[in-house]
Fold each of these.
Amino acid sequence: NAGVTQTPKFQVLKTGQSMTLQCAQDMNHNSMYWYRQDPGMGLRLIYYSASEGTTDKGEVPNGYNVSRLNKREFSLRLESAAPSQTSVYFCASRLPQDRVSDTQYFGPGTRLTVL
Amino acid sequence: TQLLEQSPQFLSIQEGENLTVYCNSSSVFSSLQWYRQEPGEGPVLLVTVVTGGEVKKLKRLTFQFGDARKDSSLHITAAQPGDTGLYLCAGALPGSARQLTFGSGTQLTVLP
């Protein structure tokens, strides 16, 4: 039981390049999330998926696209990377019940640098 | 401006000291969670508080949810070097149980 896994762990891109960050969970969770973490800003929600086949924008969706490939996998794509997207990206998943006390489980993060 | 303001942003103390971290907002939350994050890892949930005025204890850590459900505090008694980390509060707004709003975090360093 690996929990939430993310690949790659580190990535360096040049401005304008594209890439996809991969996330998978093996806990049979319905909801999955993508966050970015910047110094002094906490975590900000980029996109989330409440269930397979649905995705919704979060607080900072511009410049990103997502795909909920199946119940396990939720990918984040940067079509044309910009230096402002330099950040640490976290994927998370959540227990099936929509209770306010439910826990989000986080992956180890992807550290992305855009030059 | 962040919906959840945490203070202090940085805190460096000696082993054995007590400390309190605050999480404040002008908005009402259905629940408030506290996470701890270590370098190179994702946040890990410490506690969830749901009822206004609720107090929860986790060994040397005491968490309190404000009566009006707009603020929360984390108190650590006799801090140890193992408590070092980034502490994040996160709230669920009413009607948005699926989403969390995070505070900016408090970086705690406990010196031996």
Amino acid sequence: EPEVTQTPSHQVTQMGQEVILRCVPISNHLYFYWYRQILGQKVEFLVSFYNNEISEKSEIFDDQFSVERPDGSNFTLKIRSTKLEDSAMYFCASSDPGAPHEQYFGPGTRLTVT
Amino acid sequence: QKEVEQNSGPLSVPEGAIASLNCTYSDRGSQSFFWYRQYSGKSPELIMSIYSNGDKEDGRFTAQLNKASQYVSLLIRDSQPSDSATYLCAVGLYTGGFKTIFGAGTRLFVKA
């Protein structure tokens, strides 16, 4: 069964450093999403991406965040200058164009900022 | 502020019983409604979607939607210990782009 994959599974970085989290969505999906979940808290929407552009973003997704689809398979989230409060699990999700809200999640990347 | 509210639980039911999980949402423009299951340390897994008022059944799961009351529920029949997880209610919005708002989840324990 096709699945969303994410790398790395765990990333440790120092405050102020840039990180890139990588995702490979399900191959025939056209909608892509990033979410974060701080430990013990709810899953929070960050951004949705369609047709090579951001289609919606939350107030969390400020100028330090960016997304890119650099090729036909990868979808990345870049955090330019990490802060301690960026420590969280980051989930990528994708969905089929026929059911854009029915999202399939990857296993997540745990980001630890020290 | 668009909100999705759930009882945090924990909800504890004996094996074989019906577990009932509830959710309310604030945005009347919400178009689609979902239940995800999240095991500890894992990612959310989509288990049910519902788009129109009424009931939708899939195996042991039944989702119910009442848009007038802004209320969504999930019933799990014949609960099994493997159903023990956090159940996340999620609401899909289209505001020029697709956005999904999640509730904080209800923790369910099914006792053997």
